[in-house]
Design a protein that fits this description.
With 384 residues, the chain is of the alpha+beta class. Helix content is 36%, strand content 26%. Strands 1, 2, 3, 4, 5, 6, 7, 8, 9, 10, 11, 12, 13 and 14 form a 14-stranded mixed β-sheet that branches.
C-alpha cells in the first residue's frame, strides 16, 4: 500500500533531509548536499526565499517503509515573469517503482492544482543558485557539489508518465594547460592587461578577503547576475533577503584565488567569475554532515583543493562583447595552474547559452554529463 505524508514535524523533516543518503548509500557517483542546507529549506528564518514562494514537502511510504520524497514549489515571481501557472517539483528521490513515482509527482500536481496552477515542471529549485535538472547522460560520473545525481530510471520513468523535455544543460570537463607555455593563455594574459587599463577596471579579489568582497560588493554582484542571467530558462532574480542565503554559502566555501570581481571607477561590479573548490570528498566521507568533524575536511578541501567546479560568471550588458571576460579567465586559470590543478569541471550550462560556453572554448574539454527538466499539464497523476 502506498501512503503519502506531508512533511509537518521535525521527525518528518529529518527523514526528508536524510532520505537521499539512504537511497544512494551504495552509489559511488552520489554526492550528498550539506545536511544543514536540507534542514534550512523549510525554515523561513533561514530560507528567505520562502517569504515569496510556497513550498510543501512529501514523504512516500510503501507497506510502511519510507521509499521516496519530493517537494512542490510555487515560485510566484517566475510565474509572473513567464505568464504561466507553474508548480515546480524539487528534492525528488525515490526507489524504482512506478506506483511511487506516480504518487509523489501526483502529490505535487495536487498541491499545484489546489493553488490554481496548470503545469508541473522540474526538477527546479528556488532560483538559479539552487540545484536543477535531472541527469540524462553521465551516470558513471560523480556529481559536483552543486548538482544532484540521479539513477537512469528517473528520467526513464518520468518520460513514461508523459513528461516532455524542457530545458537542457551540458556539463564539461576542462584541461588546464601550462599557462606560461600555452600561446592561448599568453594572449589572454596580454589582453587582460590592456582591457583593465582601457576600461579603468580593477579586480578587488587581488587585494580584499572573500568576506570583505561579499560585504562590500555582494549586492552589486547580484545586480550584475540578475542582469546577465535574466533571459535564461527558468531564471528567477535573486533579490532581498534571499541574497543572504547565497552569500553565506559563498563566504564559507569560496577560495579567493579562484574568484574575480571586476569593479569600475563608479564602484560597480561590471563582471565577476566564481570557481569553487570541490568539497565532494568531504561531503561523501561525512554523509553531508559538517559536525562534529565534517567541517575540518571541508575547510581542508577549500584551502588546499584537489578539484574545482565552475560556479558562476556574469557580465553587465554595457560591457558585453568588450572581451573583459579575458581578465577574469586570466586570473583564475593562472591561479588554478599555480596550485597544481590540471582539470576543472563545469556545473550545468544551458545547451543554447553559447556565450558562456565560448568563454572557455580555448581550454581542451569534453562533455561528460547532460541533464534536463521535464514538463506536463497538471491532472493525470492526481490521486484523490
Amino acid at each position: 500500500m502506498i501512503e503519502i505524508r506531508e512533511v509537518k514535524t521535525k521527525r518528518d523533516l529529518r527523514k526528508f533531509a536524510t532520505y537521499p543518503v539512504k537511497l544512494y548509500k551504495d552509489c559511488p557517483y552520489y554526492v550528498p548536499s550539506l545536511l544543514g542546507d536540507e534542514y534550512a529549506t523549510f525554515n523561513p528564518k533561514k530560507n528567505f526565499s520562502l517569504s515569496k514562494n510556497k513550498l510543501k514537502g512529501f514523504l512516500c511510504y510503501k507497506d510502511g517503509e519510507l521509499v521516496g520524497r519530493i517537494a512542490g514549489l510555487i515560485n510566484y515571481k517566475d510565474n509572473e515573469n513567464t505568464g504561466k501557472k507553474y508548480v515546480r517539483f524539487s528534492r525528488f528521490e525515490c526507489i524504482n517503482d512506478m506506483e511511487v513515482f506516480k504518487s509523489l509527482l501526483g502529490a505535487v500536481e495536487k498541491f499545484g492544482k489546489e493553488n490554481g496552477m496548470e503545469l508541473i515542471h522540474g526538477p527546479w529549485g528556488f532560483n538559479d543558485t539552487d540545484r536543477e535538472g535531472m541527469l540524462t547522460e553521465g551516470f558513471d560520473k560523480r556529481s559536483t557539489y552543486a548538482t544532484n545525481y540521479y539513477y537512469p530510471y528517473f528520467h526513464e520513468n518520468v518520460e513514461k508518465l508523459g513528461f516532455e523535455a524542457e530545458s537542457k544543460w551540458i556539463e564539461r570537463k576542462f584541461v588546464v594547460p601550462k599557462c606560461a607555455e600555452d600561446d592561448r593563455v599568453v594572449r589572454i594574459d596580454k589582453m587582460a592587461v590592456r582591457l583593465k587599463e582601457k576600461y579603468g577596471l580593477r579586480d578587488v579579489a587581488e587585494t580584499m578577503s572573500v568576506r570583505q568582497i561579499l560585504k562590500k560588493y555582494g549586492d552589486k554582484m547580484f545586480d550584475t547576475l540578475n542582469e546577465a542571467y535574466r533571459h535564461l530558462d527558468g531564471y528567477v532574480p535573486v533579490e532581498g533577503k534571499a541574497r543572504q542565503n547565497v552569500l553565506s554559502q559563498f563566504a564559507t566555501i569560496v577560495n579567493k584565488k579562484f574568484i574575480s570581481f571586476l569593479v569600475n571607477e563608479k564602484e560597480e561590479v561590471v563582471a565577476f567569475g566564481i570557481v569553487l573548490a570541490s568539497i565532494c570528498d568531504a561531503l561523501v566521507k561525512h554523509r553531508g554532515r559538517l559536525f562534529p568533524f565534517g567541517f575540518i575536511d571541508v575547510l581542508k578541501s577549500i584551502h588546499k583543493p584537489k578539484e574545482l567546479e565552475m560556479a558562476l560568471i556574469g557580465v553587465k550588458d554595457e560591457y558585453k562583447n568588450t572581451g573583459i571576460n579575458a581578465i577574469i579567465i586570466s586570473r583564475i586559470v593562472n591561479n588554478i595552474e599555480k596550485n597544481g590543478i590540471t582539470e576543472i569541471e563545469s556545473n550545468p550550462m544551458l545547451e543554447h547559452n553559447h556565450s558562456i560556453q565560448s568563454m572557455w572554448k580555448f581550454l581542451d574539454n569534453e562533455v561528460v554529463k547532460k541533464r534536463q527538466t521535464y514538463i506536463k499539464e497538471i491532472g493525470s497523476l492526481i490521486q484523490e
